[in-house]
């Protein structure tokens, strides 16, 4: 009795796990699986690649630099930063219909929105409408936390302060007269940013919430006057502001400004001459940056990008070629493991 | 002058002890000398110094120190990540290790106390006093009773035995379980209470067999004492009621303590590799940080970039010192990239080792029904080292052999007698291959032979037979089987019961003791009818020259055959002494025994003189049976590329055709010249034969076990080894010669080694070129120092106590289990942990490389590419479980195949999977994938409008796409490496990926109130809404795994598939 007890206590458990004998699947990649697999993957990739490539080819893009570096450019006159309220024109013509809906982007280069101190320089509690943080913005906003008179800046921080403030108006020249192309400023920012993440304080009128605060030094008007015509696009939920606050990943970036979806232009921009009137406010030359505008239409894959299509084609053909090589290798060595 | 000088010199390297602390009346001043107390300390810490000392030890580890620095930097400097990310895991690791080490030390304290608080009896001014063992002082007279161990090194003063001797066994010191005779100091037996004497002995030294002492009874003259007067601490008193001795060495100065080596923490080669890789990655890390810091300041020096209007500095930043800024920037970069060396790797490695070691103790193949125990794992740090063993040192008695001798056969006058069956002893004996006509004469010779076996020994009868060597017992028992039973001693008479059940008595006149140089022993007895006979037994080489040649010719063939069979052979001879001859011998022996100087030499001369002109009767063969499957195990180990060194003589270790090179006291004595000269000669000769002459083709390429090359076996004994080690200034030359010879032999035997000598041999091999991995296996206390010295120490749960098991790293019940432990578990553990280490470095390289590359696109501003949650969770949750499961369960080749093909062990020998070339491969793979992840997404983001609604993605989307590709790629890479998919693997691999998806949704799906920045809000969900993001993720995963897939397909399967092998077995 005693002995049996000992045996049960000391003898190791005879289970599959403790004896390292769990049933196991031991995959063997044999030529019979790999070669057809590679061919299939390769063909699929080539198929996707062709689709991507053609889609990308069909996207029309019109890019215009308006920094005004060249003296010939109309915006050259505005490139002097001391010059306030300067407007310049950018003229172009379309020979065929620019198919719609057309998306209108502005682009900046050599602009580092991705810098750490820059990106951290905002107060998300403030931007979600928490009034406590209107009085005392977080220190990360420094040097745009308080102004010289120790008034809190709302919205605080470098990111908000440097909001892009060039404005554009597009005219079609029809028989010598300028016809305004209507811009749609809705739906340019992420739905969640607009509806959830950024909130105005629940104070009406909105202006009262900003009592005792000052606007960011670079701004020409306070946040509650960003869009006085539409309360749902004003303050912190102004879509231009939201687009700006979503930091770009790379120093050369573009951001969505407007969509052209309305009226005569819902089908796109018809052939003809156009004039873009630019209120030139945003200085970029001091840090060697450039500004541009981009007209583009989009497909299911987004904007024009040749990279994906080409990459898919290359990888797809690589797979097919490799399966051929493997076939030759295996034919020579008589499928060593497939017996 | 000369005399004085001599005395001075002696005083320096000797100590003077006053027996019983009584000064000599003659000496005017008595200065009680100071010696250390009798406390044994094997513990490392005390309560007070535990915390600082343990922390110091832990932070001496390069990794721990590094993490401490990173943590401090994060606390002090404004860094992109929180100090908690590195502080918490570090705290966890340090605490767990401290608790473990503290517990181990507590156990050592307990063991020490057991020894130190043991009560002993000390004579103090004529009274017997009980004292704790630790309070014994040098000079105390100590009483020890039978079966007690000596509490310190004693000089034997008085014994309860009449013949002024006592018996001890030194099993726990040198593994010899026989009874050794020790002698009292002459003329001291009267009046211990009033004895005043001084002992002048040398300073403590570890050699067990060396002891030179002068004992002076104050008034009477000097006496010189030797090792036969010294009782060593750790030895046990046997067959003697009690003895008195004076303590000469105590505590840590005893020979046992000097032979004991502290248990130092053993580090595996894998850990050394990890540290080397760590250094490489540290360099990568530092250079990355340096590059980024430089770039930052170069870039800032361009006009307009130092402080663009949109990103102005604060006043504090403007005021700060430029160089200080540079330094803090450097530190920030270090912190940003520090994930390249993750704490989690150390946690995972520790966990793998800890959990993995359970599989050893759980293995039912290691369970021995006899002792009702399985394997025991004392250290989990060395699991993988079991797969790297190059040298195996094994102890003989109890480890390789069962230490139970068995009488196999004998040979009388050239006729062979096999012990067929003990039940039919008489019949079996009479049926011989001898001619019938000689039967009468034969019977007489037979009886003579058996009487010789019954008389020529030092066996005592006491509930069975007790003897100094198990061979003697085997012989006496053998004689018993044939009808002659030794009944024991009665005063000076030996009583033997013969075949007719009559008791014969013989008066024992002299015993000519066995010694290793003569290799024989004799007794002189007087029979009832007055004949004086000398019986002698010994090794063939020591008997043959002393008998007639024609007798030798009849027997030598049998002896040689038995010897090649692996039996121990002894020859038995006898001669009749006439009364004159005996009188002469008797006088010579008595005189020599009483000689004060050179007693050994004089005795030897008399022995040699008496043992001549004998007549050879026969020979015996005794087998020391090997442990079950010992030979098979050793053969498998040798096939696996290990060299087996043994501290024994077990002939089956030598294959037939192995040429034996012997370097023992015997070979050195032959020349009759000084030992050192002879040693030099022999060494050079062997070196020429074993190292230079046969071109030692490394058979590694052919991997065939039976190569055409001549195999050599090498035999050396303890005395010769100490000559090799400490002979002369050019001993280093001998040492290297010796080492070279040994390394060219397939098997090396070392006999009669002191524990420290065993350790010395292990140490010599361990520190030789290429620092091979050594494994020691033993079962007795005498193996402890060897077990501690080797990289891996294995204890056998044998009969010789638990000392070896306690000090070992792993303990197994039988020698045969070594095969599975090394070839099976060891191999798998090595592959697992090597893959774990490489994979960890790889996955963190391709984790951090994109973050580094991103610095070129964010103005080198330490902007993290990934969200903080991803940075922290990557190593903890998303990618940790699959590799842990892999490193516990993977069996790239199944256990049976590993066991049956021992040569597979060579595939991972010499740390094959953690050398620089595989490391480079993994690193390149990591770099390739890191580059691919980053630039693939970079090209995609050349137009960040990735959604069909024209909206653009920002920097967090960028990072999340890279991170998603990363998590999937490294997990799938592991899936591809997994050869053994259990349900656990499936669960953790697919579970990790699912968890990543789930977590990302969850993390980005809620506005977390405790977070300042909701930067990942809906980033992941938005990413999944973009077809382009999906496509780029799939593309990059496939492209980064493509080289691996190709390699996997094109590489031929190296090992037979386990299922196929199973079929062939059926």
From TrEMBL, chain A:
UniProt keywords, alphabetically: Membrane, Transmembrane, Transmembrane helix
UniProt xrefs under Pfam families: CDC50
GO cellular component, as recorded: endoplasmic reticulum; Golgi apparatus; plasma membrane
Subcellular location: Membrane
Transmembrane segments: 33-54, 310-331
Origin: domain of life: Eukaryota
GO term, biological process aspect, one: phospholipid translocation
KW Lyase (keyword) present: no
InterPro entries listed in its UniProt record: CDC50/LEM3_fam
Family statement: Belongs to the CDC50/LEM3 family.
The protein's name in its UniProt record: Cell cycle control protein
Species in which this protein is naturally found: Oncorhynchus tshawytscha
UniProtKB/TrEMBL annotation, chain B:
Cell location: Cell membrane; Early endosome; Endoplasmic reticulum membrane; Membrane
Chain sites annotated for binding ATP: 395-397, 472, 514, 537, 568, 752, 758, 782-783
Membrane topology (UniProt): Multi-pass membrane protein
UniProt entry keywords in alphabetical sequence: ATP-binding, Cell membrane, Endoplasmic reticulum, Endosome, Lipid transport, Magnesium, Membrane, Metal-binding, Nucleotide-binding, Phosphoprotein, Translocase, Transmembrane, Transmembrane helix, Transport
Top enzyme class: translocase
Binding residue positions for Mg(2+): 395, 397, 779, 783
Entry-linked InterPro entries: ATPase_P-typ_cyto_dom_N, ATPase_P-typ_P_site, ATPase_P-typ_TM_dom_sf, ATPase_P-typ_transduc_dom_A_sf, ATPase_P-type_domA, HAD-like_sf, HAD_sf, P-type_ATPase_IV
Pfam families per UniProt: Cation_ATPase (PF13246), E1-E2_ATPase (PF00122), PhoLip_ATPase_C (PF16212), PhoLip_ATPase_N (PF16209)
PROSITE patterns: ATPASE_E1_E2
One GO term (biological process): phospholipid translocation
Transmembrane segments: 59-77, 276-299, 330-349, 869-889, 919-941, 956-975, 987-1008, 1028-1050
Domain P-type ATPase C-terminal: from-to ranges: 805-1056
EC identifiers of the protein: 7.6.2.1
One Gene Ontology term, aspect cellular component: recycling endosome
Family listed: Belongs to the cation transport ATPase (P-type) (TC 3.A.3) family. Type IV subfamily.
PANTHER family associated with the record: PHOSPHOLIPID-TRANSPORTING ATPASE IG, PROBABLE PHOSPHOLIPID-TRANSPORTING ATPASE
Name under which the protein is recorded: Phospholipid-transporting ATPase
Organism: Oncorhynchus tshawytscha
């Amino acid at each position: 009795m005693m002995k049996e007890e000992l045996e049960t206590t000391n003898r190791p458990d005879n289970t599959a796990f403790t004896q390292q004998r769990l049933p196991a699947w031991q995959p063997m990649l044999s030529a019979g699986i790999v070669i057809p697999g590679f061919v299939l993957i390769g063909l699929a990739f080539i198929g996707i690649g062709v689709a991507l490539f053609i889609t990308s080819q069909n996207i029309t893009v019109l890019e215009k630099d308006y920094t005004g570096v060249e003296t010939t450019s109309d915006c050259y006159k505005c490139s002097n930063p001391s010059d306030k309220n300067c407007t310049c024109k950018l003229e172009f013509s379309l020979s065929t219909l620019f198919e719609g809906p057309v998306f209108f982007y502005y682009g900046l280069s050599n602009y580092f929105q991705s810098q750490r101190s820059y990106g951290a320089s905002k107060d998300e509690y403030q931007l979600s409408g928490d009034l406590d943080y209107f009085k005392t913005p977080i220190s990360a906003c420094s040097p745009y936390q308080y102004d010289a008179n120790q008034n809190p800046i709302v919205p605080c921080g470098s990111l908000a302060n440097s909001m892009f403030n060039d404005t554009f108006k597009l005219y079609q020249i029809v028989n010598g007269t300028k016809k305004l192309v209507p811009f749609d400023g809705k739906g340019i920012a992420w739905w969640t940013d607009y509806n959830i993440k950024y909130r105005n304080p629940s104070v009406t009128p909105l202006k009262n919430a900003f009592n005792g605060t000052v606007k960011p030094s670079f701004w020409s008007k306070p946040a509650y006057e960003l869009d006085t015509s539409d309360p749902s696009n004003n303050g912190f939920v102004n879509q231009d502001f939201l687009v700006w606050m979503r930091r770009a990943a790379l120093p050369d970036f573009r951001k969505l400004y407007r969509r052209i979806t309305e009226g005569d232009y819902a089908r796109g921009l018809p052939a003809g001459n156009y004039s873009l009137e630019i209120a030139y406010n945003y200085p970029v030359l001091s840090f060697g940056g450039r500004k541009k505008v981009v007209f583009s239409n989009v497909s299911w894959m987004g904007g024009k990008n040749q990279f994906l299509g080409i990459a898919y084609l290359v990888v797809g053909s690589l797979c097919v070629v490799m399966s051929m090589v493997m076939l030759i290798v295996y034919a020579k060595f008589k499928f060593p493991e497939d017996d | 002058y000369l005399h004085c000088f001599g005395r001075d010199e002696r005083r320096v390297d000797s100590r003077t002890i006053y027996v019983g602390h009584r000064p000599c009346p003659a000496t005017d001043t008595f200065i009680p000398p100071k010696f250390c107390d009798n406390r044994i300390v094997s513990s490392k810490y005390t309560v007070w110094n535990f915390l600082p000392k343990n922390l110091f030890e832990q932070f001496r580890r390069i990794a721990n120190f590094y993490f401490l620095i990173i943590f401090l930097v994060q606390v002090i400097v404004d860094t992109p990540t929180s100090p908690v990310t590195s502080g918490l895991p570090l705290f966890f690791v340090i605490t767990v290790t401290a608790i473990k080490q503290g517990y181990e030390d507590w156990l050592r304290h307990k063991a020490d106390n057991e020894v130190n608080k043991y009560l002993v009896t000390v004579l103090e001014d004529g009274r017997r006093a009980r004292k704790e063992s630790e309070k014994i002082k040098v000079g105390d007279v100590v009483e020890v009773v039978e079966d007690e161990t000596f509490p310190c090194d004693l000089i034997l003063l008085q014994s309860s035995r009449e013949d002024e001797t006592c018996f001890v066994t030194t099993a726990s010191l040198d593994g010899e379980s026989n009874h050794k005779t020790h002698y009292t100091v002459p003329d001291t037996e009267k009046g211990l209470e009033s004895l005043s004497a001084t002992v002048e002995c040398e300073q403590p030294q570890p050699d067990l067999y060396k002891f030179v002492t002068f004992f002076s009874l104050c008034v009477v003259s000097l006496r010189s004492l030797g090792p036969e007067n010294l009782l060593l601490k750790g030895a046990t008193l046997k067959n003697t009621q009690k003895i008195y001795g004076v303590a000469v060495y105590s505590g840590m100065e005893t020979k046992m303590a000097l032979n004991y080596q502290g248990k130092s923490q053993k580090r595996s080669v894998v850990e050394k590799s990890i540290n080397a890789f760590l250094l490489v990655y540290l360099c990568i890390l530092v250079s990355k940080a340096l590059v980024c810091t430089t770039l930052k300041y170069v870039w800032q020096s361009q006009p307009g970039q130092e402080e663009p209007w949109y990103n102005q500095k604060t006043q504090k930043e403007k005021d700060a010192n430029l160089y200080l800024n540079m330094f803090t920037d450097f530190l920030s970069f270090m912190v940003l990239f520090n994930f390249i060396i993750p704490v989690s790797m150390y946690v995972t490695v520790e966990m793998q080792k800890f959990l993995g070691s359970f599989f050893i103790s759980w293995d039912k193949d290691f369970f021995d029904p006899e002792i009702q125990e399985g394997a025991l794992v004392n250290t989990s740090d060395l699991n993988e080292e079991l797969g790297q063993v190059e040298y195996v040192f094994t102890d003989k008695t109890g480890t390789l052999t069962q230490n139970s001798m068995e009488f196999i056969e004998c040979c009388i006058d050239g006729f062979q007698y096999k012990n067929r069956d003990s039940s039919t002893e008489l019949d079996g004996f009479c049926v011989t291959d001898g001619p019938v006509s000689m039967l009468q004469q034969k019977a007489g010779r037979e009886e003579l032979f058996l009487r010789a076996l019954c008389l020529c020994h030092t066996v005592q009868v006491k509930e069975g037979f007790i003897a100094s060597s198990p061979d003697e017992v085997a012989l006496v028992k053998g004689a018993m089987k044939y009808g002659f039973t030794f009944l024991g001693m009665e005063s000076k008479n030996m009583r033997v019961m013969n075949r007719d059940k009559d008791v014969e008595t013989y008066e024992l006149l002299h015993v000519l003791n066995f010694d290793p140089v003569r290799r024989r022993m004799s007794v002189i007895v007087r029979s009832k009818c007055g004949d004086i006979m000398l019986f002698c037994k010994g090794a063939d080489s020591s008997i043959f020259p002393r008998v007639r040649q024609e007798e030798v010719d009849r027997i030598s063939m049998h002896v040689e055959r038995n010897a090649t069979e692996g039996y121990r052979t002894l020859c038995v001879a006898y001669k009749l002494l006439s009364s004159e001859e005996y009188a002469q011998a008797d006088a010579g022996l008595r005189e020599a025994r009483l000689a004060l100087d050179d007693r050994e030499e004089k005795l030897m001369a008399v022995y040699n003189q008496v043992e001549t002109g004998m007549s050879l009767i026969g020979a015996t063969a005794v087998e020391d049976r090997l442990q079950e499957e010992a030979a098979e195990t050793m053969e498998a180990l040798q096939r696996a590329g290990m060299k087996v060194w043994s501290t024994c003589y077990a002939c089956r270790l030598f294959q037939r055709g192995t040429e034996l090179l012997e370097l023992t006291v015997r070979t050195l004595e032959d020349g009759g010249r000084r030992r050192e000269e002879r040693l030099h000669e022999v060494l050079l000769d062997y070196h020429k034969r074993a190292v230079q002459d046969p071109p030692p083709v490394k058979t590694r390429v052919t991997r065939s076990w039976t190569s055409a090359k001549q195999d050599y076996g090498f035999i050396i004994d303890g005395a010769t080894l100490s000559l090799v080690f400490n002979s002369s200034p050019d001993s280093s030359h001998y040492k290297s010669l010796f080492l070279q010879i040994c390394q060219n032999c397939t098997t090396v035997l070392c006999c009669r080694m002191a524990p420290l000598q065993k350790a010395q041999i292990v140490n010599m091999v361990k520190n030789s070129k290429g620092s091979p991995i050594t494994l020691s296996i033993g079962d007795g206390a005498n193996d402890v120092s060897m077990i501690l010295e080797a990289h891996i120490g294995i204890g056998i749960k044998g009969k010789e106590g638990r000392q070896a098991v306690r000090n070992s790293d792993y303990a197994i019940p039988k020698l045969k289990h070594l095969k599975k432990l090394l070839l099976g578990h060891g191999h798998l553990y090595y592959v697992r942990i090597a893959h774990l280490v490489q994979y960890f470095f790889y996955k963190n390289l391709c984790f951090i490389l994109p973050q580094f590359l991103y610095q070129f696109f964010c103005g080198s501003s330490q902007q993290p590419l990934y969200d903080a949650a991803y940075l922290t969770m990557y190593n903890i949750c998303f990618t940790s479980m699959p590799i842990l499961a892999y490193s516990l369960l993977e069996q790239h080749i199944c256990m049976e195949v590993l066991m049956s093909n021992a040569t597979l062990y060579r595939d991972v020998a010499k740390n094959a999977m953690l050398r620089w070339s595989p490391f480079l491969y993994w690193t390149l793979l990591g770099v390739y994938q890191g580059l691919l992840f980053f630039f693939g997404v970079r090209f995609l983001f050349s137009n960040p409008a990735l959604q069909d609604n024209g909206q653009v993605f920002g920097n967090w989307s960028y990072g999340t796409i890279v991170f998603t590709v990363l998590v999937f790629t490294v997990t799938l890479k592991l899936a591809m490496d997994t050869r053994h998919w259990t349900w656990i693997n499936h669960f953790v691999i697919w579970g990790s990926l699912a968890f990543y998806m789930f977590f990302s949704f969850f993390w980005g799906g809620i506005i977390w109130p405790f977070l300042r920045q909701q930067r990942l809000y809906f980033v992941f969900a938005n990413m999944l809404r973009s077809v382009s993001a999906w496509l780029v993720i799939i593309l990059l995963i496939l492209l980064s795994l493509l080289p691996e897939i190709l390699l996997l397909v094109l590489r031929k399967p190296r090992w037979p598939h386990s299922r196929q092998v199973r079929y062939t077995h059926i």
